Automatic annotation (TrEMBL):
Similarity-based family: Belongs to the Maf family. YhdE subfamily.
Name of the featured protein: dTTP/UTP pyrophosphatase
EC number(s) reported in the record: 3.6.1.9
Gene designation per UniProt: maf
Sorted UniProt keywords: Cytoplasm, Hydrolase, Nucleotide metabolism
GO CC terms in record: cytoplasm
Active site: D88 (proton acceptor)
Catalysed transformations (reactions): UTP + H2O = UMP + diphosphate + H(+); dTTP + H2O = dTMP + diphosphate + H(+)
Lineage, uppermost ranks: Bacteria, Pseudomonadati, Pseudomonadota, Alphaproteobacteria, Hyphomicrobiales
Gene Ontology molecular function, alphabetical: dTTP diphosphatase activity; UTP diphosphatase activity
Keyword Cytoplasm on entry: yes
Function of the molecule: Nucleoside triphosphate pyrophosphatase that hydrolyzes dTTP and UTP. May have a dual role in cell division arrest and in preventing the incorporation of modified nucleotides into cellular nucleic acids.
């Protein structure tokens, strides 16, 4: 980069991209007063590598999603002062990676594994700042479920809330009634650890608090 192109970049408008198709991630970001200029989901292969741990998978996929988004024409068009955020959430039981439940059988398998036990939710946020500087934070949250009765499971399956969710449940819905204990980041379990996301953005020079001051006031 030449001195003149660097100077040009410094004056380009600041843009934020959320590389995600997850409506939860957008809602979480908006909860802390940040609205992306572009939603640009990245399509990555989420199959774990052989012997990959749940934590390593979450970190790798968040990085891949962010890097893939950088290559997209719509993102490039935003200019040199663009920040790209991506995230990935993996539910693990020991070294075992639970699937993103797509079928009733997936969800039933997950719920029977989670019943009466503690598991870990690994949520990684990856930020690519202008100049392609990449940084990540992986947040580990321990979640303990009550022992699930037949009725709990059947009614939860009927709710359909498990569909497309890592580990076959969504803590932001009815499954919160199954959670005896949570140690870590609630927003991380839903899909985007907010403390870490805001810290990464601030650390990379994104004007987080300027956005707070210019955004319309909201009732909470
Ligand atoms: C454990 C848990 C997961 N989830 C969701 C978050 C993620 O959307 C999903 C895990 O899949 P991810 O692959 O992390 O995300 P995604 O494919 O839905 O979206 P994208 O890659 O485009 O950003 O599970 C909940 O919504 N609540 C929960 O309690």
């Amino acid at each position: 980069m030449t001195a003149s192109s660097k100077a040009k970049g410094a004056h380009a408008p600041v843009k934020l991209v959320l590389a995600s198709a997850s409506p939860r991630r957008l809602q979480l970001l908006e909860r802390v007063g940040l609205t992306p200029d572009l939603l640009n989901p990245s399509d990555v292969d989420e199959i774990p590598h052989k012997r990959e741990t749940p934590r390593a998978l979450s970190i790798r996929l968040a990085k891949e999603k962010a890097s893939r988004a950088l290559e997209m024409p719509l993102v490039k068009e935003l200019g040199p002062n663009t920040f790209v955020l991506a995230a990935d959430t993996v539910v693990g039981l020991g070294r075992r990676i639970l699937p993103k439940a797509e079928t009733i059988d997936d969800a039933l398998d997950c719920l029977s594994l989670l019943s009466g036990r503690s598991h870990w939710v690994y949520s990684t946020v990856c930020l690519v700042a202008p100049g392609k500087k990449l940084s990540t934070r992986c947040v580990e949250t321990k979640v303990r479920f009550k022992r699930l009765s037949r009725e709990d499971v059947d009614s939860y399956i009927a709710s359909n809330e498990w569909r497309g969710k890592a580990g076959g449940y969504a803590i932001q819905g009815r499954a919160e009634a199954f959670v005896r204990l949570l140690t870590g980041s609630y927003s991380g379990v839903i899909g985007l650890p907010l403390f870490e996301t805001v810290s990464l953005l601030e650390g990379a020079g994104y004007p987080v608090f300027h956005s707070w001051m210019t955004a319309p006031q909201s009732e909470v």
